Every structure is written in structure tokens, then in C-alpha cells.
Amino acid sequence: MGKRNRNRGRNGGGRDGGAEGKSDRDSGWGAGYADIIKENKLFEQYYQELKIVPEGEFEEFMEAMREPLPATIRITGYKSHAKEILHTLKEKYFKDIQDLEIDGQKIEAPQALSWYPDEQAWHTNMSRKILRKSPLLEKFHQFLVSETECGNISRQEAVSMIPPLLLKIEPHHKILDMCAAPGSKTAQLIEMLHSDMDVPFPEGFVIANDVDNKRCYLLVHQAKRLNSPCIMVVNHDASCIPRLMVEQNGTKDVLFYDRVLCDVPCSGDGTMRKNIDVWKKWTTSNSLHLHGLQLRIAVRGVEQLAVSGRMVYSTCSLNPIEDEAVIASLLEKSEGALELVDASADLPGLKYMPGITSWKLMTKEGQWYSDWSEVPTNRHTQIRPTMFPPTDPEKLQSMKLERCMRILPHHQNTGGFFVAVLMKKGPMPWNRRQPKVTVDSEPPAEEGDGQTPTDQHHRVVIGLNVLCLLLTCAGPCEDPFVFLTEDDPVFPPIQTFYNLSSDFPKLNVLTRTHEGKKRHLYMVSKELRNVLLNNSERMKVINTGVKVWSRNNDGEQFGCAFRLAQEGIYTLNPYIRARVINISVEDVKVLLTEENPFLSRLGEDAHAQAKKLEMGSIVLRYQPDLKDPDAPQCPIELCGWRGKTSIRAFVPRNERLHYLRMVGVEVFKDKQGKKEGGASESQEGNAENTEEPGQEEDTAEQEQSDTEQNGSAQSKTNNSEDNQN
């Protein structure tokens, strides 16, 4: 969805604004606003005159705009547990809800969005207040919160889910998300890259950008839950985001993206159902102020798009000045290099109106202009020629603006939305003579790209054992990204202890400190490593990599100083050939509900495997039993510790609850905070000491709250509006 702008002064000055105003489209359950008069005569006058709503439907349209927006959830598609989550929702929660009445109001069971593939998205009329009124719904609410924190469910408004689907992502695609915070759509892009969970490192990646440093941490928080080595968060103005370089066959080439998501900041009048303040603040001036910024971001997006690549432009505004006017201007500038794609068959079941081909402008005083020639000179700074439709009928027809998609709130009980899919058929006119690029040189700025020198610099430092990307910046500095070399002394004990396979990509391992002991080790894909190392002076990286190992105090006495990290276990899984215990469903229950069980509490087979292992970090692996349909039908990988006489799982609280639900154990806290069933308090928080030395600091709870990499302390303070629980 487009970002609803809240600070036009800053955005009007040419800043991205992706972090300035995010509508609540990516937020949680139900509305909690006090009664506000939902009237704006100028709004009604404007859209009635533009005829964006089919004849005879305007009253229905306005009634829908005044109704609260239904809550929607999306099950993450790439997780191997998605089918299990869907099964739990349908068989446990939705069935119980459908016959429920609260205060005389019949609760409607959630319904699958007809246009979203594989029943992976659902909507309901339940508000947060209703969710908490019934103990049964309170359990459902706790389920949603817990699974959201695990990254298994995303609470995201329905129309916000559309742009990633229209991009048609494949695992090898290189993707740029230009205005990404807080990251619900970014999460969709990551999921699509990992459609095959047997491939830990897809060839593609997502570079997610936002102009606002603080909101970049919201983005990190959202992406981190998916534990992908193929995501990088960067902090740039989208309208002049740097052109990056990658090394191929010993030479540096420009990085062009296969897919670009251009979800621009907008006036947000399609969000009135959730953002009630838009009713009193809406004027036509909002769109006039934003049009130039939106066009600059879109131009920069197509400049970075590969030929034959696809860009989706979207807003949560219904105003053609922000929608069709931007697309028409972009098409005209492209001189045939861009084409609007007919996406009508891509989402069967989605109801939408075609883009409009005729519109006019209205000032906040109510003055109308149908053509640039009518605009008085004293208004030329506010009103620009690109805001009007093309005057040449043939040119207008050739643009096929009707291929744009307008989603109206009353058609499928959603927010208002605009989306257009563009394909690049050739280089943009000002890029047709590609500049020559030589190794170790800064590529010249493209003509008209608005690129200016930046005072935010990186430098590459090559040491004996490290290849380090250091960042110097005017704002808060991030920790450095230090890539290890194949002969780094940290590897031999890890290699031996876990019997890593020979194809383990050592060069993809990095740490976030240049000096002293390495506390955590992270992994990125080979392609992202290439991007990091070849863009030292033109990219401000906030975060990349998934944590795979953490240092264990005094761990050397157990044979290895590094224990496995739960968030990276699925990335490491294909390479680990030792320290693995195969467990049953009953073993999973024991490990996740008992505080520090003796080895003898495991089943006979798992117990025998555990006895053969020395103390230290282990993998606890459950493989589905196809003969037992009642058991989870997806693999489960848990990090654990084999002690002298006991065994323990190191799993963050919400993941623990997730796995317990998968094996049929429900954990629920009543309103007094008392637990019913499942894990003990200490087991849930994993806060008790284990018997091995030096493990006090290595609890799963601390793993979950570790802020060295993800800046989650900042994300929590900025997350109140966009990711409500």
C-alpha cells in the first residue's frame, strides 16, 4: 500500500517520506477511535465530479468509507508450517467462533479472501474489543499475537497484500522495495523468494529501503521474524536511491533489479476507514504537494529496473493526480520503453475498476482546471503539466491507462487502493547510451537521475583474516559488517564439532564486530555478499544476515565455543551432519513443557542417540510421519543443549508456543496472567540456568531480545501504530 503522508513540508522538499506517513493498512485488529464526524463535503464534491465510482453507487461508496475496516490476517506462505497453521485456524478456532454470540451480536467466522492464493489470507468483522470479551476469543487473540511474533502470521490489511502478488516473484529474482517500512509487503516478498524451503539460499534477494532511519528498524523487526539470509535493509531517499554495482566474472556491472515495488507515500484518502483523521484533514492540496515526489520515486524505480523486469506502482489514494497522472507521465517520459501490463487475470476473484483516462484538478478553494493552459502563472509552482491527462487522443489511447486497477471500498469491503503494473521493454531514453564502468571507479550518475554525492561513506578494510565493511555516517552508526575468510581460526572447531559438509559457504559468514571476540555469527546469501562488498561508498546498510551461531561462555571445554541459534537453524540445517538427535512428537512435548528434563525422559530412540553425544549444542530434529495424519506433517528443527544428565531446548517463547500448538498442547494465559496447560513459566521464558557452565547469558529469551543486530529496542518504541497487537 502507499504510505499516507503526515508531513507534507518534508516530503514536498523532495524527501522520500516512506517513513513519514504509513497508513494503518499494515496494522492489526479492529479500530479503536472515538466517535468522529465522518464528513468532508470537499471530498464528496471532488470524487463525484471525477466519476471514479460507477453511476448509482456513490452513496454505497460513502457508506462503506464510514464503516470500520475489517481485520485481516495472512499466513506466511514460505514457512513449511503454513499448512499446519491453516489447519489449526480452520479446525480449532474458526469452527468455535462461527456459532458465538457476544452481547447479542453474532460473531461472523473469518472468511478466506477469494483472490488470495491457497486460502492464505482471511478477513473478519471482529474488533480488538470483541476479541477480548470472550475467553474463547481471548485465546484466539493470544494465538494471533504469538504466531505473529513468530512470523507465521501477518496482520495486514487486504489491499496491502495485492502489490507483491502482482510482481510475480520467483526465487531467482533480485528485488528492490523502494519505500518499505514497516515491512508487511517486504515480508511477502521474502516469503515468495523462499517458496522452496529445501533451498536455504535462493539466488534472489530483497533490498528493502526506507528514508527514515528509525523506521528502518521497524522494517528490520518485521523481516527478522522470517529468518532469511536474503534480505538487506538500507536507508536512502527513494527518489535518488544509489545505483549499485555487482561483480560478475571479474568485472563490475550495474545491478538492475528483476522486480521493483514502488509503494509510494501518498495522501491516503483510501484509508479513511482506519485513519479517521483523514476525514477532517483531507484537501486536494495533499495530492498536489505529493505528485512530484511520487513521480521522482517512480522514475528512479524504472531506471533501476532490468529490461523485461516488472515494477508495481501503488498508492492508498483514490486521487488520479497521485495515480494515473504519475503513470501517464512515466509512460510519456519512457518514449515506449515502458508498457502497462494487463493484470486482470492475475488475481481471479479480485473486484476492481479500470484506470480512468479523463480527470481534472481542483484547488482547496474549489477552483477547477481541466488543462495546463487554464492554470494561472501564480499557481505554476503548485500545479504542474504532468498532473493533467495527455491532450493527444492517440497518445492517451496508446498508454492503455484502463489497465491500471482501482479498488473501491464498497466492492469487497476493503480500503481504497490503486495499483499499476509496468514492464520495461528497453532502456529509458536517457539511459540508452550506457556509461562504461571500470573496476574501482565510482559509476557516473545517470542523466536526470537526481543523484547527488553523499556524505555517508563506507570503506572496505582487508585484513589478514577479515574482509570488513565499515560505515561512517552523520547519523547513528551501525556496527560494521565483517566477512570472515575461509581460513579464519573460528571455523576449524565449528567444522569439526558439527561435522559441516564440504559445501558449507564459509565466505557467506559475517560478524558485527571488527575487534575482540566474535559474539555472534551471521549468514547472508552469496548474492548479497556480492552487493555488500562492491558498494562500500554508496550504500548505508542498516541490517542484513540471519544469526546462526552465538558464543557460549567457556564453550571451548565442550569442544566448540559457538552454540547454534534457533533463528538460523533452518539455514544451517542442510550442512550439519553431527550433533543431531531425531525426536518424536512426545519428545517435542517433553522438551518444550519440562524445564530441564533428564535424558531418560526422552523416548527410547532419542535417549539412545543423546547418550552417544558429548555435552554441548545440539539439533533436535522431528521428521513427519506420513503414516500418522494426526501428527505434524512438516519438519521441526529445534536448537538444544545436551548437559551431563539432562537435555534442553533453546527456543524463544513465542516459537515454543507455536511448536506446542503444532503437537496438540495449548498454552493460554487468563486475564490474571495464570497459565492453563503447556509449559511452565520458567520453561516459557527459558530463564532458568542450565547445568552447563557459562549458559546464564545464553537463554532463549535473551536470544529473542538481542539487539546487537536488529535494533529491536528502537523498533518497539516506533511500532505502536503500524503493527498493533
TrEMBL record:
Residues 61-425 form the SAM-dependent MTase RsmB/NOP-type domain. Residues 689-706 have a biased composition (Acidic residues). It catalyses: cytidine(50) in tRNA + S-adenosyl-L-methionine = 5-methylcytidine(50) in tRNA + S-adenosyl-L-homocysteine + H(+); cytidine(49) in tRNA + S-adenosyl-L-methionine = 5-methylcytidine(49) in tRNA + S-adenosyl-L-homocysteine + H(+); cytidine(48) in tRNA + S-adenosyl-L-methionine = 5-methylcytidine(48) in tRNA + S-adenosyl-L-homocysteine + H(+); cytidine(34) in tRNA precursor + S-adenosyl-L-methionine = 5-methylcytidine(34) in tRNA precursor + S-adenosyl-L-homocysteine + H(+). Its main location: nucleus. S-adenosyl-L-methionine binds at C179, A180, A181, P182, G183, S184, K185, D210, D237, D263. It is an enzyme of class 2 (transferase). Keywords: Methyltransferase, Nucleus, RNA-binding, S-adenosyl-L-methionine, Transferase, tRNA processing, tRNA-binding. One of its GO terms (biological process) is tRNA methylation. Residues 17-27 have a biased composition (Basic and acidic residues). It is found in: Nucleus; Secreted, Extracellular exosome. The active site is at C316 (nucleophile). Belongs to the class I-like SAM-binding methyltransferase superfamily. RsmB/NOP family. This is tRNA (cytosine(34)-C(5))-methyltransferase. It comes from Astyanax mexicanus (Blind cave fish).
